[in-house]
Amino acid sequence: MTPFIATDATLAERPQVIVPQHNTTQLEKMAVSAGTPWLYSALSQLWEVENTGQLIPGIGDLRVREETASRARLFLSLVSITDLPVPTVTAASGGSVSIIWSMGDREVKFACYPDGQAMIYKCEDDEIVEPRAVNFAEVSSVGDQLRWMVQQSR
Amino acid sequence: MPPLRDDDRIADDSFLLRALLPKWSIVKGGRERPTSDSLLDSNFENSCFIEEELSIAEVQLLFPGLKLARLPVSVVRREGFALERRPEEAPVGCLKPEAHVVIGALLALERGDYERCARHIVKDPTVQVIHPVDPDVPALPDA
Asked: How many domains does chain B have?
């Protein structure tokens, strides 16, 4: 095999490499058009978590698999409440993703694990009051915990 | 891999240091504490360092710019977590690899129970968050 020598001429002949950028997804467009800043922020944070995670000796493996991030996006797409606070999206060691909403004394945490399981935790006064496995097939129930959190402020 | 056994040579009154990523601390009720995510791992193992063997300053050198959680061993054990030395998994540059331990449940837990245990640890009032040293601020002279 002829070695590649980087002269001006050879460089000009090489196809331009296009580095993938943060493409605006349909979900993000929806977030903007529907006026849901929490969703846009959540998707941006999720993109960052998915694309910047590293294996850090002494801390853990923060690399998030595409399937895990996709399930988190699926969950976000199923939340039909527009009036939510901006959540915090973070990774935990081992490649799970957490999306956490807080409002007053109440908090809802959605966690998506690399084995495909997903959980949602209702917390009050910083205590878990209900852990529940997420059933993506039951679209109507996905937002129940978030509605519980929002109701207290009304 | 989670700890296989609890190393009882690590005293209950000692402390563990855990490096915190920027989103792994939160202010609740006016007090800063680590988040439960900082102590959760899909394999039920989290890296920490024994403070008596590797000082706060030495751990800060390994993780510049990051906050540290300071966890009493007694609190970690109270929630059912075990501690096991893993010198071979210490990060490159660690001055005392023997000080590196992993903590986690000896038996596999349900996700909800694991989350609850981690939350109880980080909420304990004796758990501290230590901020990184600002290189632009000169250290105070010794009294």
From this structure: 1
